[in-house]
Design goal:
By secondary structure, this protein is an all-beta fold. The chain has strands spanning about 20-25, 30-35, 50-55, 60-65, 70-75, 80-90, 90-95, 100-105, 105-110, 115-120, 125-135.
């Protein structure tokens, strides 16, 4: 997917204003879906919240919202690689036996089968976008 802030000549008449979530179909072309992650931000004092932004048969995009001190318990996903993108706040990621504190603007790749967890150590809120794709089947030998 290519994201751009500059509309093309043909697209400028139908582009929604920034901040809106929309679905656009033009003629016979495929549907274009847009979303502003801020419209999916929700927090709970009890636990981290996960809000799905996009889902197709091949890709899922979720927004993880953490209050201070909340965490995503260590887990393994054997079916897909994941990319986590820290949008706001600072997160402590543990992947396998390696732990790193990652500030906003940082991305991390977690390969299928790697145990990983996230902790928000700060008092401020933390928002992380996660992208995961279904792994293709192994080629037949």
């Amino acid at each position: 997917m290519i994201l751009t802030t500059e509309p093309t000549k043909e697209f400028s008449k139908i582009r929604p204003s920034y901040g809106q979530n929309s679905v656009i179909t033009v003629g016979e072309e495929k549907t274009l879906k847009t979303a502003n992650f801020r419209s999916f931000v929700q927090f709970s004092p009890d636990k981290m919240l996960r809000n799905q932004i996009f889902k197709t048969k091949n890709l899922t995009t979720d927004l993880l919202c953490f209050e201070g001190g909340q965490s995503l318990k260590p887990q393994k996903n054997t079916e897909s690689d994941k990319v986590y993108f820290v949008l706001e706040g600072k997160a402590r990621f543990t992947v396998g036996r390696t732990t790193r504190e990652l500030p906003a603007g940082t991305m991390i790749l977690v390969k299928a089968g790697q145990e990983h967890g996230i902790i928000n150590l700060a008092d401020q809120r933390l928002n992380i976008m996660v992208f995961f794709a279904k792994l293709p089947p192994e080629p037949k030998k």
